[in-house]
Write a structure and sequence with these properties.
2 domains, 6 helices, binds heme C
Length: 233
């Protein structure tokens, strides 16, 4: 009889605690959130959602097609989900890199107007939500996509060489030909240039900034980041 009781209580606890932590507590917190009225005519706010350049719209499709979201997330962990203190704000990569831009945690509205919401599956590579703030010049980004290992030997990012083409130099070399040395260098008389897909992808990456002013002020989520002090240089 006691064994049955222990078994039954154990079973109940196994279901009860996850249910409490994963469903009841987040639900209780989210229920308290107030809806924010969107007023597109509010003159104190810029256009919302912020206009996205055409090239970024095309690049978004390449990002999806190439499976970048398998390794890169685009979400700065919100504080209202799950247990509050666990890796709160995870994904604010530029703070680690000492780029003095402080961004807020991601809000659902940040994905508004996107064809896909690239939340991501795993954080194998850095979070790209606000990559636009720390992106290098396009040429460096091309070279990184072409051969990630030439930047960091430990990089597990695959090479995206199929987004580039090697062609014979005819007359003047192309202005955006990749500057590569050593084993990655193109054959004599050849140059490696980005295809239209690579250009679109880089255009997309360089405009990634998920911290637009939200209608209604971005609520409490915006405050901690804005109030934090910039990293010491
Ligand atoms: C197998 C996992 C994987 C995939 C798939 C992948 N990456 Fe990466 N990526 C990484 C890792 C790991 C790093 C960090 C090391 C480095 O810089 O190479 C990284 C770094 C980066 C960086 C530099 C980030 C920073 O903060 O400096 C960019 C930009 C990037 N990846 C873009 C892409 C794009 C675009 C794709 C799809 C075409 C992609 N990645 C696919 C693993 C991946």
């Amino acid at each position: 009889m006691t064994r049955f009781r222990t078994f039954f209580l154990g079973l109940a606890a196994t279901f009860f605690f996850p249910w409490l932590i994963l469903i009841v507590l987040p639900h209780a917190r989210m229920r308290a959130m107030q809806p924010v009225a969107v007023d597109p005519a509010d003159p104190t706010k810029g256009e919302y959602p912020p206009p996205v350049p055409n090239i970024a719209k095309q690049g978004e499709k390449i990002y999806a097609r190439e499976g970048c979201a398998q390794c890169h997330s685009q979400v700065v962990r919100p504080t209202y989900l799950g247990i509050d203190s666990f890796k709160r704000g995870w994904g604010r990569e530029q703070e680690n890199l000492n780029v003095p831009v402080l961004t807020r945690t991601t809000q659902p509205m940040d994905y508004y107007g996107e064809t896909y919401a690239f939340l991501g599956v795993e954080r194998n590579g850095p979070d790209l939500s606000n990559y636009g703030y720390r992106a290098p010049a396009a040429t460096a980004l091309y070279a990184h996509l072409y051969s990630p290992k030439s930047f960091a030997w430990w990089s597990t990012m695959p090479s995206y060489r199929h987004l580039f083409e090697s062609r014979k130099i005819q007359g003047q070399p192309s202005a955006d030909a990749l500057v590569l040395t050593g084993e990655h260098a193109p054959a004599d008389g050849h140059e490696i240039v980005p295809t239209a897909d690579a250009r679109a992808l880089v255009g997309y990456l360089m405009t990634l900034k998920k911290d637009a002013d939200l209608p209604g002020g971005g609520a409490e989520e915006a405050a901690p980041a804005a109030a934090a002090t910039p990293p010491a240089s």
